[in-house]
Amino acid sequence: MTTSLAPRTAARRQPSPSGMSPLARKRLSRAALNTAGVLVFLFAIFPVYWMVSTAFKTNDQIFTTDFIPIPRELTFEHVERILTEGVAGNSIWVYMRNSAIVALGTVLIGAVFALLAATAIARFRFRGRTSFLILLLIVQMIPAEALLIPLFLNVKRLGLYDSLLGLIVINVGLTLPFGVWMLRTFVAAVPKSLEEAAWIDGASRFTTFWKVLFPLVAPGLVATSIFSFITAWNELVFALILMSDSSGYTMPVALQFFFGQRGVDWGAIMAGSTMMTIPVVVFFLLVQRRMVTGLVAGAVKG
Predict the structure, then answer these.
(1) Bridge-partner residues for 301, per DSSP?
(2) Most CB within 10 Å of its CB: which of 29, 38, 289, 302?
């Protein structure tokens, strides 16, 4: 028996035709993947770095033909000018407040409707269910610009023109199909046996939904909330069309005032863009910790 296994063992230990052992090939492939990951990270992070660095460069460093990756002289001129002078006769904090109201309102309202709709689609069988799912995909394929005139007329007919509530309603409508489609997958992945076990223990449907299903779907809810927040925070076209009073503008609209006929104030634009990025990062840091804890919380509480 030992004699018959010896040739096979020796064959396994022989190096490959390329002269590399399996362990060396594994290490080489891992190093290649790590290198590719680092290159992708640098490619993704460079625009953010350039935005932040430009916000603290002097005008001489910005408007030059030389490549200056690191500011030679730091200045807070652009940030101070935005904070003190404001934009279009209003403080920059007015636009930040409007963007926060619209983004948070979109997240809260959209999350409630998306979770309820996703639960109904994943847990119940009703006529038109498949057609509704196909309709969600079709809506995602339609450009938002194609819906601009119909949505504008409906918002004006409802008396929501020139109001933040109108912007919230529009953004909820734009992000809701994606939220329903994503949350449907999370709800469908939760075993029905967990809910049935809770019903046997005497839990009501609401208690089962809140203490069993909701914690397990929380990671998907966080993912859709991040998508909705970023979409509403960066939305420009509808905020520009549906708002006539400058005091109701959001940050993306406010930054458009730095594009003038005589030139572009890149320092102020980059400083304002840097300020716009901070709330998105803070929101992600606040909610990302719940993505992992929600995976097992429902099974434990149920």
Answers:
(1) none
(2) 302
